[in-house]
Amino acid sequence: MAVSNVYYTNMRTTLTENLLQKLERLVKKAGMMDIDFNNKYTAIKIHFGEPGNLAYLRANYSKVLVDLIRSQSGRVFLTDCNTLYVGRRKNALDHLDAAYENGYNPFTTGCHIIIADGLKGTDEALVPIDGEYVKEAKIGRAIMDADIVISLTHFKGHEATGFGGTLKNLGMGSGSRAGKMEMHNAGKPFVHTDKCIGCGACQRNCAHSAITVLERKASIDTSKCVGCGRCIGACPVDAVDSMCDEANDILNRKIAEYTLAVLKGRPNFHVSLVVDVSPNCDCHSENDAPIVPNVGMFASFDPVALDMACVDAVNSQPVLAGSFLAEQDHHSHDHFINTHPDTNWETCIDHAVKLGLGNKEYNLITI
């Protein structure tokens, strides 16, 4: 595979060019406007941020992409899927409230927001990929209904995958509730009986008769359960939970296979901002201090090369004093391994290359 181009600009500004104008110049130089957006449905996959976390990307960045796409008569929307864990983005109503609270709304972004997997995370498209781990990916339907996929990613650390970049934004982020169950779990959901009120909502939403309610407490028969996760979304008191017990290396490979399901057969383009590089995911309702200084903005048609360029850029930075990373033992020259020693981010990258998603080798073009 030919070496891929990754375009980069730093976070410096001048009296005549601010950061939003630099982002516009970056994506134009990287070739985003070569895509035919005319009357095409274009999904911008983004993470709206869990309320309480302030490291997520500001809505201003997304508006730059929205305005460019709309200037070419594209039919654009911002999107994400509901979360598997209990939080403010577990269902579409709360998810939209969270997005609005964090500054994402049609007035600030210039387009509508669609939660891709519907009200309870069950509106999904089944995408055959015949991967090593995933045979049929479960992707939020609105994402699969789009003609074009653009990703806008906040690049940061992650406690399970090493870092959260473009592949994770697209793969994990586009999975429906059942899809996230498949990626995160080797096992099945379970019931916190101390929380369960015996309402039967989980039982009514189980298509496989795996749930019974006795003496106002639900239980799951794992021999019948297929791990779809609908019971998690149905429970009004968050008594049904995910084990999240998949090995990190397999989790990373499943994310690569889900990314393949999202991107195959469609025009796609990717932007990643290496700023506020917190040690953990934006799914946390808090963010720790950045582990390295802000680096800049990157863009490419190749999601693998883009993630590699961002990793290399972070690893070339000094560790910030007082950060979580500064407090860890440094057994490696890799900031992400030192931050979360039980992770190996390379498994996702290597599997993505094997799947033909992109190239680890890249030309870094500075603008």
From TrEMBL:
InterPro entries: 4Fe4S_Fe-S-bd, 4Fe4S_Fe_S_CS, DUF362, PSI_iron-sulfur_center. Residues 187-215, 216-246 form the 4Fe-4S ferredoxin-type domain. GO terms for molecular function: 4 iron, 4 sulfur cluster binding; metal ion binding. Keywords: 4Fe-4S, Iron, Iron-sulfur, Metal-binding. It comes from the Bacteria. Ferredoxins are iron-sulfur proteins that transfer electrons in a wide variety of metabolic reactions. This is Ferredoxin.
